[in-house]
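Thread: glutamic acid complex, take 2
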Amino acid sequence: MIRTRFAPSPNGQLHLGHAYAAVVAHDLARARGGEFLLRIEDIDGTRSRAELVPEILADLEWLGLTLDGPVVYQSSRLESYAAAAERLKALGLLYPCQCTRAEVLAAAVELGPDGPVYPGTCRGRDVDPQGAAWRIDMAKAAALAGPLEWLDELAGVQVAAPEQFGDVVLLRKEAPASYHLAATLDDAADGVTLVTRGQDLFAASHVHRLLQALLDLPVPVWHHHPLLCEADGRKLAKRRGSPALADLRKAGEGGPAVAAALRMDQFPTGLCLGAGVGIGA
Ligand code: GLU
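Output below.
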């Protein structure tokens, strides 16, 4: 049986791009007799807003999307993130880093899928671990794991190439875990067999595949769907004026009709599907 999930970060209200992602995940589960879960990615203490969670639930209900299990909160999983990080530390794969964002930017010479690649300034240095971020020694980790592949249903078999990210952060200074570590562990813990998400996160799956190998986690199949984009090719963003689902809902628009239009690739004027190059949500 397959299991999919929709995993919003409650940093802002959901918009049509989120609705599209939720419909894709929900419908793939329904079409294959599987299950659809909701996971709230609420571990970013500086951006996460608990008061948005009831709105997210109301949005999904309004769209007519039903859940097959209790809502999962990343904030309830902190121990598993710490335990996994300890395991990776015991393998000698993590190192503390005290570099600021500005220092990373200044030192970076390459651009990776997530932005400037950290050049490994703190690797091999005697850095105070107190309050540090913990980075993975990517070359060492990739060598330990050996060659890996993963499957995207739409794009086919991929040879894992996590090295393009450089030494990514797994434990953040200001949050208990990075997106890469938390999402990978949670998908395994939730029994997610088909990871559906936007193409903007395609490259992240190289890192997730590596973490699965290092932590002996089951390997799902991925389905990276196109993103709802604005006419300039950038993915929808609330701050650029895409309406919030909550506003449409409160204005009395019919949620099932909105979902049905998205299923038929019918979008409001000016919006289309694309790869959503270059921008965050
Ligand atoms: N929380 C992420 C976001 O809102 C999605 C993560 C995922 O689907 O893996 O962009």
